[in-house]
Specification:
This protein is mainly alpha-helical and about 525 residues long. The chain contains 19 helices and 9 strands.
Length: about 525
């Protein structure tokens, strides 16, 4: 089994995904030897500061508005315990296991950089929990995305001090009981450690990485669904001609057009170039322009989160120069603004994939809009049968919900901590909204794929069963038809919808292109 060595500088999207979704067969996580030395050096520096009586935020002072309250040396350990128990006030449903694992991994990675002052043994305990499958119950709501993800990260760290609740081997039990079963030992936190564990952007980053990966997958899926719909609707591929896109050379618009051309290569379902019907509706003709713009947003999100994955985001930060001089600097790397803006941008961009997909579903089901290439609502004996009528309703409901969810969270702020923390990013809210938008688009695309496959079968009846789909789309069609039949008459369809959703979620729709 692969081992991932954390050093705070080289964690990748693929590694986060492998650890998040690989349980119980995920890669083992360890700290690199170089990182161990840096972590130990910073922890020793904290003890040096304490011995010198240096005043440093969160080490010898209180937190937030209590930053001016000096903590006596004999209460330093109590201070760190207090930050966990007082800050663990999250509410709502718990994060799923993959997201929880991603949070733990990303928190461990940033602490491995050696600027946080946490002891090596404390950091190793967090990693041992991850490797043992001890997953803290972390409520989704409660973070403002400003002084880090305080509430959720406090819940993450509670089991380390013998508190909290976890999921372990499929059972919800106390943190203390899980440690006993897993052979782990809880600890007493040293100076700075409670703050280091809770003060950072690990929750926002985990959600951002996982949703960016999903968005990348669904962007390709949307291209496939759009092309299959185009073939079902007797559309033309002329609008994807390279010459058109070279004259408006947005890189990802050009990439999208090239991908569409490959999907439709050798298709016998597209309209002849000599047809008097010279152009299609925008939902078909403008796929490269719309999907390409979404690709831009996804690329921006990846850029942001690749940086954040290996950033140090707690406060204060400890610096040790070549002469072993120690400097403690208070700053604001915990502020989630870069992430909040990226996730808001990604949310309303991915929502556009759902919007244009829903409009293609409408065109597939409305015989007037598709110039009678397909029967009304993709069914025989319409009237007795409703066919795919209500599938479009569902897609429309999801697309509408996404419009509400697309209101940016990052433009909002609300002061906290007696107005000391007077501007917050709402990054965690942006992250949760983004996840909901992506969930909805996953289902909209599933409906389009199912509808397009039904439309293709009606086209076959008109042009001949021997006709071939495009080099790319035929794989997606075959995957659908392997598991879902042509719908002859009204039947229970939500189970079919769920099956295709699983193919979309797993990436099988894309993989069958290869």
């Amino acid at each position: 089994m692969e081992t991932i060595y954390l050093d705070g500088t080289s964690l990748t999207f693929d590694q986060v995904y492998a650890v998040a979704y690989g349980d119980p067969n995920s890669p083992r996580v360890e700290i690199s030897d170089a990182a161990k030395k840096l972590v130990t050096r910073a922890a020793d520096a904290v003890q040096t500061l304490l011995s010198r009586g240096v005043i440093a935020y969160g080490i010898t002072t209180g937190f937030g508005a209590f930053k001016d309250k000096i903590i006596p040396p004999d209460h330093v350990e109590q201070l760190q315990r207090n930050i966990l128990v007082s800050h663990a006030v999250g509410v709502g449903d718990p994060f799923d296991i993959p997201t929880t694992r991603a949070i733990m991994l990303i928190r461990a990675n940033t602490l491995s950089r050696g600027h946080s002052g946490i002891r090596l043994s404390t950091l190793q305990l967090l990693i041992e929990m991850l490797n043992a499958g001890v997953h803290p119950i972390i409520p989704e709501k409660g973070s403002l995305g400003a002084s880090g993800d305080l509430a959720p990260l406090a819940h993450m760290a509670l089991p380390m001090i013998g508190e909290g609740v976890v999921m372990y081997q499929g059972e919800r039990i106390s943190g203390a009981e899980s440690f006993k079963r897993a052979g782990l030992s809880s600890i007493k936190l040293a100076a700075k450690e409670g703050l280091a564990l809770t003060n950072g952007t690990s929750v926002m980053t985990a959600l951002g990485v996982l949703q960016t990966l999903r968005a990348e997958r669904y962007s390709q899926t949307a291209d496939i669904a759009g092309c299959l719909s185009l073939e079902a609707l007797n559309g033309t591929d002329l609008a994807f001609d390279e010459r058109i896109h070279n004259l408006r050379p947005y890189p990802r618009q050009k990439e999208c057009a090239a991908y569409l051309r490959n999907l439709l290569k050798d298709s016998e379902f597209t309209r002849e170039h000599t047809s008097l019907n010279v152009q299609d509706a925008y939902t078909l003709r403008c796929i490269p322009q719309v999907h390409g713009a979404v690709r831009d947003a996804i690329a921006y999100s990846r850029w942001v989160f690749e940086i954040e994955l290996n950033a140090v985001t707690d406060n204060p930060l400890i610096f040790i120069d070549d002469k072993d001089e120690i400097t403690v600097l208070s700053g604001g790397n915990f502020h989630g603004e870069p992430l909040a803006i990226a996730m808001d941008y990604l949310a309303f961009s991915v929502a556009e994939l759902g919007n244009i997909s829903e409009r293609r579903i409408m065109r597939l089901t409305d015989e007037c809009s598709n110039t009678h290439a397909l029967p009304a609502f993709l069914t025989n004996n319409g009237g007795l049968n409703s066919g795919f009528m209500i599938l479009q309703y569902t897609a429309a409901a999801l697309a509408t919900e996404n419009k509400v969810l697309s209101h940016p969270a990052s433009v909002d702020t609300i002061p906290t901590s007696a107005n000391v923390e007077d501007h917050v990013s709402m990054g965690a809210t942006a992250a949760l909204k983004l996840r909901d938008v992506v969930d909805n688009v996953e289902r909209i695309l599933s409906i389009e794929l199912m509808s397009a496959a039904q439309g293709v079968d009606f086209r076959r009846q008109a042009i001949g069963a021997e006709k071939q789909l495009g080099a790319g789309t035929r794989g997606a069609y075959a995957l659908i038809r392997e598991h879902i039949p042509f719908i002859e008459s009204d039947t229970v369809m939500y189970e079919y919808m769920e099956k295709i959703r699983q193919f979309v979620a797993s990436g099988e729709v894309i993989q069958c292109m290869k």
